[in-house]
Predict the structure of Bet v I/Major latex protein domain-containing protein.
Amino acid sequence: MAEEASSLFGIVETTVELKSSVEKFHDLLVGRPHHMSNATPSNIQSAELQEGEMGQVGAVILWNYVHDGEAKSAKQRIESLDPEKNRITYRVVEGDLLKEYTSFVTTFQVTPKEGEPGSVVHWHFEYEKINEEVAHPETLLQLATEVSKDMDEHLLSEE
């Protein structure tokens, strides 16, 4: 029985190279998520603070986004923040993802590129599927990659 349950747990991750700085990328995603729809309108329609303080542990953000061609929503709570390492962890507390996953935790960290301008964002999804029929969230990683690249272009255009 224990083996069966463990196959429902998973981790997927990806890394995206960016031209924009660590500070700018982190600020847009953590401090100004409500501007994300300007950066990537085809992927993210809105991000609204539902409770707490923007960019602080305990803040709850409602995201309206498009995944696999369908409009979806997710409420995420900031679980932890490490400003020195530019790392943040969100837990999905409500929304479409919880129809397929009993838990879904996203961690992202932005680090400077070595020896050149720009940064690298690392996305890490840790999840538990409700059953074996649910796919691993690779398409969500693709979405995170697209959003990261759109954000990067947007930030460069603001300079």
User: Anything to note?
Assistant: The beta strands are 9-18, 44-51, 60-67, 70-82, 87-95, 101-112, 119-129. The first strand starts at residue 9 and ends at 18. The helical segments are 2-6, 22-31, 36-39, 138-158. Residues 1-5 have pLDDT under 50 and may be disordered.
